[in-house]
Design a protein that fits this description.
Elements (H helix, E strand, L loop, with lengths): L1 H30 L2 H21 L2 E4 L4 E5 L4 E3 L2 E4 L5 E9 L6 E7 L2 E4 L7 E3 L6 E3 L8 E10 L3 E13 L6 E5 L4 E2 L5 E6 L7 E6 L2 E2 L6 E3 L5 E4 L10 E7 L2 E4 L7 E12 L4 E2 L2 E5 L3 E11 L3 E8 L2 E7 L2 E5 L7 E9 L6 E11 L3 H37 L2 H10 L2 H6 L15 E7 L2 H4 L4 H5 L11 E8 L3 H8 L1
Helix pairs in contact: 1-2
Protein name: HEPACAM family member 2
Membrane topology: Single-pass type I membrane protein
Subcellular location: Cytoplasm, Cytoskeleton, Microtubule organizing center, Centrosome; Cytoplasm, Cytoskeleton, Spindle; Golgi apparatus membrane; Midbody
C-alpha cells in the first residue's frame, strides 16, 4: 500500500505533462511551425520511454538451482518489484520436466488462489507473496519451476523466472571392502579397496589416508567414479589407515578406517646390550658379568631370530629368540664372535648382523666411572708419601749429626767463659762444688784445643783418652746467699 501511495503522484505527473504537450502541439500545428512540432514530438517519446522503464516489473530469485532433501519441505523464494499503480496482480506457477510440456500448479489474482485440484495439497501460495512452498518434496518433484507475474494498471506488464529444483537423498555411512582380505607381500601383490554406500543420490567419492585426501600417484589407480582404489604394487610406505568419504549436495559421511595387511621386512636389523660399552659392532663386558643382548628388526609379521656363534672357522646355532644372555665366566677366550639372524616367513627374506664381545679384567665402563675417584685418591696418596719421606729425612739428619749442634753452641760462646771456668777435685768441699754442670763431649782435638791449658793441668786425666776429653765446667755458682754462709 505504501508503494501505491508513492507511485500515484508520479503517474499523475506523467499524465499532466502529456496533456500539456498535446495542447502545445496543437497550438504549434495551428501556427504551422514544423520545427517546434518535431522537437516536442521527440520530447514526448522520451517521456513515454521513461514512464515505461519506471513502470517495469522485476523478479528476483536467490538461486536458479536449488537442492532439496527428499521428504523435507522446500520453499522457492521469489521477490518482485513494480513501479506503477497495480489494479490486479496475477501470479502463476508452472512445472516442467525435460522433454515435456509445462503443467499448471496453481495461480492467484490479488488475494484469491486458484490451485490445480491435482496438486492443491502439495503446493502452497500466499499472495501477494510469490514464493512457493512444496511439502513434502519427492524425487518426482525434481524439474524446472516457472513463476510468472502479471500486473495490470495503466497497462499490463509481465515478468517470469525459472528455478531448477534437484531432489537429493542423504547418503548413509559407506563401507570399505579390501581384496584380498588376508594381506599381501610388498612388491609382489596388489590391494583393491571398494567403497559402497547404501543410500544417496549424486554421490561423490573421495579416498582418505590417515585423515588426508589421497591423490593419484605411481601406484594409486582410481576408478572412473573414484569408488574403487587399486594399489599396484603394494609397499611398506602404503601402510596406513584408509577411509572413504562420500558426499552429495545435502550430506556427507565417512567410512570406518581400515588398515590393509602388508607383509614386509626384515629392515634395520641391529643388536643392543643392557650394559657395557658398545662401539660399532664391538661390545665389552667384565669378567663375572652377565650381559643380555637384544636383536630386533622392522618386520611384519615379527621375525624369527637365531643366535650363531663363530669359533675356529666353524659356526653353530646356540639359541633361538630375540634375546641372548652371555656370562663372561663361561667365555674362555678374551674375544668371541656372534651372529644374529632374522627371518620373515611371509616374505621369505632374511638378514643377519655380526658383532664381537670382548672380555676385560677391569671393564672399560668401570674404569670410566672410577676415573675421577682414582685421580683424587692418587693425589692424596702422593702427598702422604711426600710428608712421610720428609719426616724420615729430618729424623735421620738429627739422629746422626748432633755434634754440629754442639759445635755451633761452643763456637758461639766467648773464650772468657772458658778462662773463668775452674777445675775442682773430688777432695774439696762439696759445698763449693754446688752448681749446674754441663757435660760436653768433644770428639776431636780441634774442639778440645779451645779449652785453656791451665784448666787442663789441674784436672784428673786418664791415659789413652787423647781422642776424647771430658770437661766439667761450672756454669753457675751457688746463689749469693749460700756463698756468704760458706765464707762465714
Amino acid at each position: 500500500m505504501g508503494q501505491d501511495a508513492f507511485m500515484e503522484p508520479f503517474s499523475q505527473l506523467i499524465l499532466t505533462t502529456f496533456i500539456f504537450f498535446i495542447n502545445f502541439l496543437y497550438s504549434q500545428l495551428v501556427s504551422l511551425n514544423l520545427s517546434y512540432i518535431l522537437l516536442f514530438l521527440i520530447v514526448y517519446l522520451f517521456f513515454n520511454f521513461c514512464a515505461g522503464i519506471c513502470s517495469a516489473l522485476k523478479l528476483t530469485v536467490p538461486s536458479h538451482t536449488i537442492h532439496g532433501i527428499e521428504g523435507q519441505p522446500l520453499r522457492l523464494t521469489v521477490d518482485y518489484n513494480l513501479n506503477t499503480t497495480a489494479c490486479e496482480i496475477q501470479i502463476i506457477w508452472l512445472f516442467e520436466k525435460p522433454q515435456s510440456n509445462p503443467k499448471y500448479l496453481l495461480g492467484s489474482v490479488n488475494q484469491t488462489v486458484v490451485p490445480d485440484l491435482e496438486y492443491q495439497h502439495k503446493f502452497t501460495l500466499i499472495p501477494p507473496n510469490a514464493s512457493l512452498m512444496i511439502n513434502p518434496l519427492r524425487i518426482s518433484d525434481e524439474g524446472n519451476y516457472i513463476v510468472k507475474v502479471n500486473v495490470r494498471g495503466n497497462g499490463t506488464i509481465a515478468a517470469s523466472e525459472k528455478i531448477q529444483v534437484a531432489v537429493d537423498v542423504p547418503v548413509t555411512q559407506p563401507v570399505v571392502h579390501t581384496e584380498p582380505s588376508s594381506g599381501v607381500v610388498e612388491y609382489v601383490g596388489n590391494i583393491t579397496l571398494k567403497c559402497t554406500v547404501g543410500k544417496g543420490t549424486r554421490v561423490v567419492y573421495q579416498w582418505m589416508k590417515n585423515g588426508k585426501p589421497l591423490h593419484a600417484g605411481p601406484n594409486y589407480i582410481f576408478s572412473s567414479n573414484n569408488a574403487t582404489l587399486l594399489i599396484v604394487p603394494v609397499a611398506k610406505e602404503d601402510i596406513g589407515n584408509y577411509s572413504c568419504l562420500v558426499s552429495n549436495p545435502v550430506s556427507a559421511m565417512e567410512s570406518e578406517r581400515i588398515a590393509p595387511t602388508i607383509y614386509y621386512g626384515p629392515y634395520g636389523l641391529r643388536v643392543k646390550s643392557d650394559r657395557g660399552l658398545n662401539v660399532g659392532a664391538v661390545f665389552t663386558m667384565d669378567i663375572g658379568e652377565a650381559v643380555l643382548f637384544d636383536c630386533s628388526a622392522d618386520s611384519n609379521p615379527p621375525n624369527t631370530y637365531s643366535w650363531i656363534q663363530r669359533a675356529d672357522n666353524t659356526t653353530h646355532v646356540i639359541q633361538y629368540g630375540p634375546h641372548l644372555e652371555v656370562v663372561s665366566n663361561t667365555v674362555a677366550q678374551k674375544t668371541r664372535d656372534y651372529v644374529c639372524r632374522a627371518f620373515n616367513n611371509m616374505t621369505g627374506k632374511r638378514d643377519e648382523t655380526h658383532f664381537t664381545v670382548i672380555v676385560t679384567s677391569a671393564g672399560l665402563e668401570k674404569l670410566a666411572q672410577e676415573g675421577k675417584s682414582l685421580s683424587s685418591l692418587a693425589v692424596i696418596t702422593g702427598i702422604s708419601l711426600f710428608l712421610i719421606l720428609v719426616m724420615v729425612f729430618l729424623f735421620i739428619w738429627k739422629r746422626y749429626q748432633p755434634h754440629k749442634v754442639i759445635q755451633q753452641k761452643l763456637q758461639s760462646r766467648p773464650e772468657a767463659d772458658y778462662r773463668k771456668a775452674q777445675t775442682f777435685s773430688g777432695h774439696e768441699s762439696a759445698l763449693d762444688d754446688f752448681g749446674i754442670y754441663e757435660f760436653v763431649a768433644i770428639p776431636d782435638r780441634a774442639s778440645g784445643s779451645r779449652v785453656s791449658s791451665q784448666s787442663l793441668r789441674g784436672a784428673d786425666s786418664v791415659p789413652g783418652q787423647d781422642m776424647l776429653s771430658t770437661v766439667y765446667e761450672v756454669i753457675q755458682h751457688i746463689p749469693n746467699q749460700q756463698q756468704q754462709e760458706h765464707q762465714q
